[in-house]
Amino acid sequence: HKVIFSGIQPTGIPHLGNYFGALANWVKLQRNAAPEDELLFSVVGWHALTLPQDPKALQQARMDMMALLLAVGIDPKRSIVFHQDHIQNHTELAWILSCITPTGKLRRMTTWKTRLAVSRNANDESEVDDSLLNTGLFTYPVLQAADILAYKATHVPVGDDQQQHLELTRDIAEGFNRAYKTPSRLFPLPEYMTTPSKRILSLKDPSAKMSKSAVDPNSRIVLTDTPAQIKSKIRGATTDSIQGITYDPVARPGTSNLLSILAACTDDDVLEVAKRYHNRNHGDLKADVTEVVEETFRKPRAEFERLRGETEYLTQIAEEGAAKARSRSDATLREVRHRVGLA
Ligand code: AQP
Q: Where does this protein have coiled-coil stretches (predicted)?
């Protein structure tokens, strides 16, 4: 049977990328899972701390993310929904795993390299200044590995920006299995589950992915945007001045991104969608993208607004989820402690 695990950071309201790269896909998995499969979805508060957070805003964002998971259709009776930061097993396992993870592997993570690139020495471009980057930014892929391995997850549905981290998780699991091999391999090697929609790009800078933390709010469409906001953001999306519509992610990233969004919303193949727009213009495409995005977000938005005020209910769901997650991960940690000599 499968154990499916995934997480999302409480760093703001999810955008189209999170929706198609993660949330919508989780709901699909939940619907199609075999009765014996287990599903765990986590709001990963400790990961959010790798960037500066306002404590009050973080508190609110954690609660909001719980409401959002339910609003998009995660069913707490079928899936274990919980806050990562309620389960200390994650940090304990992360420590143990960090002690078998070479720093060189972490230094090769694209996410880390991107952080480094941003902090290049202003006077000397070739010199990288990592003195101000916090240690959590460097080691969080190990915490991610612990999130997954604490439940001996076999399948991890994440966007393709996370694929490298999952490969690291497999490496770490293999490293542990090799170092502590008696009586048998402890961790299954989790498989990456890709999403058909792949990466959704920023509406303003299609060389970057759509991101919650990008400075310009017009670069992303979030689940709580009103129809008017959706319309204006799509109207302002960066495209190109080439006539007609074609799907060409390299030469026409902005136009192709709009086609990908349309295809994701209508559950169509992007090349089929592109064919239909061949003789049409950017105005037509943008009008149709606006319509389908509005339609996609209408129900979850209304459900979120309703659930958001139900603090007691959300707290209860989080407590029930934590109890289940704790008992699963306690079992793994007992084995891990025993193997490493900390029983
Ligand atoms: N642009 C994207 N396209 C497709 N999938 C995406 N994901 C994120 N951005 C895109 C997927 O969303 C899931 C949850 O992500 P997260 O909350 O851990 O945040 P993140 O990956 O760091 O992305 P964000 O939204 O840009 O957040 P910030 O700005 O806070 O870092 C993951 O499965 C991810 O692949």
A: none
